Amino acid sequence: MSSKIKVMPSHFTATELAQYLQKLGLESTALEPTLDTLTKVLRKHLVIFPFENLGMHYSESHIVDVSLPSLFQRMVVEEKGGSWCSGHNGFIMEMLRAIGFRAYVCGARLSLAPVRESQVHSVVLVVPSDTNGATYLIDLGLGLYGPVWPIRLRHEEAVQGASGGEAHRLVHARHPDSVIKEGADGAVGDRGDDLAPWSQYWAVEMRLAEDKPWKRVCYFTPAAEIFPEDLQDMSLVVSMRQTGLLWSNVFVIRFFEVEGEKEMGRLILHHNEVKKRGVGNMEVEDVEQLGTEEQRVAALKKYFGIELTEAEVKSIHGRKAALPSA
């Protein structure tokens, strides 16, 4: 499969890559585009840069800007938080290219049955240099339940989730509403082997525990390559869509590592509460209840190191996601 992904230059410079890796606590001079490097970058990125939708609510435009210069300035230079799907996946893909990986972003569709979601999600496909051409998927845009390990692009390939028996896997699967004819191996048409697995339809699945069923998270096909302009359009659509959890709530989700553990915990701000999900189980600890906007703004700084300006704080007034003012 590696022959199907060209080596492409990154939009980020070597200096910008070094700044990013410094934030992750990694040395740029020692990194090769291997599977181990991909794993380290993915997990460190999840720890340093949260999944959040603050720009949707705490900005004058209420549009989450996922252009690469804006993301670098916000995340690396100003340390003002992270982003959401289209921001994180586009950003890390360019950083991986700067390291030397062959990588690209492809469009995906979240599985939110019975609602049919438009294609506003994405995943990143990466070929490490030491895997004999094997392709791996990463996705930093699923928030609380996103994969924390690269997943090989192979049917029923599974990896451990963040904690508590969680797991993710890839399977050949089409969206249930698709009318495209598909062969038994997941390839489109009668001669899918000519293009497979690039013509195949895939789904990311997740289970919350070993005794829980697998559930579809999103659908994608590797042939659906998208570009920075597409990611910006995706972000624009989600920013302006007046339905769903992101419109009605403020979210910040940051992963954290525990020394000596492969599992990861999560610190979560969801609307008016801060919760903590540790490693080893699925129990959730209540950290703090937030009754006012002032308390939520203080919690962003206290727990996530995100400090909003007075103008940003005022921007949420009158929106559905706003809390009462003191």
UniProtKB/TrEMBL annotation:
Domain of life: Eukaryota
InterPro entries from the UniProt entry: Arylamine_N-AcTrfase, Arylamine_NAT_domain_sf, Papain-like_cys_pep_sf
Pfam families attached to this UniProt entry: Acetyltransf_2
Keywords: Acyltransferase, Transferase
An example Gene Ontology molecular-function term: acetyltransferase activity
Keyword Transferase: yes
Signal peptide: none
Similarity comment: Belongs to the arylamine N-acetyltransferase family.
Protein name (database record): Uncharacterized protein
The species this protein was found in: Botryobasidium botryosum (strain FD-172 SS1)
